[in-house]
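cron nightly-structures :: item 1 of 1
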Amino acid sequence: MKINLFLVASTAGVVLAGPKWPSLEPKGHHWLAPGPNDSRSPCPGLNALANHGYLPRNGREIDINAIRTAVSVAYNYAPATFDDAFKEAVDFKLTTTGNASTIHLADLAKHDNIEFDGSLSRNDIFFGDNNHFDAKIWAMTSARLKLNDSGPEKLENYVTVEVAAKAQAARVVDAKKANPSFNASANQMRGGPGTTALYLTTLWDDKAGAVPKSWIRAWFECGRIPYHEGYQPPATPLTGETIRNMFKQVASFQAKAT
């Protein structure tokens, strides 16, 4: 099963004013909100890379080498982890750059190629906009992830695989009820749990065996890599196999819940 960076639900543009703490961010990679002419995608991971300058900040004319370098330096993924994802976007002929070997980030919003119904943080294309952060959709996801809850116990401040898996499954149930044109395509069926597996893998805290809630909020709500909340890339490179193993865990929890 191919799970890729472009199958993650996302914020396409930053809608919340993010903090400016360049001293806590890698040199040359401070966070900046995208401008009105910058291109952003339905993927928080890619958007954050552009907002921090690991990808071109304008989000335009991105090639496979730029993706390789960005995911390796920022998230410590093995450079070729998302090669198939990029090639998939090219094969679908999503690019509007005029160059078959490059994409604009917004090209990834074309429905049911890489993007799909039931996103964690935006509405379905049926309602008119599948490429921008939707506060109402995210509020439901955030509540299920209990992102606003905290407590003295360490794990009260983290999201486990089980909680994340159930939140994603619940979002799909909601989308099916609200959207009379909901498309349960093969892309959607693998992409839903795949997006959850991907954000868990990318933001995973090995010591806790879970993901800090504050990291999830920064990533989804602000399109920001959560350096100021303590994020550092893992010491061991992440790979497609890492994502697939997480996918299996997510799918297992969802199967138990049905």
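cron nightly-structures :: done
Residues 219 and 256 are 28 Å apart (CA to CA).
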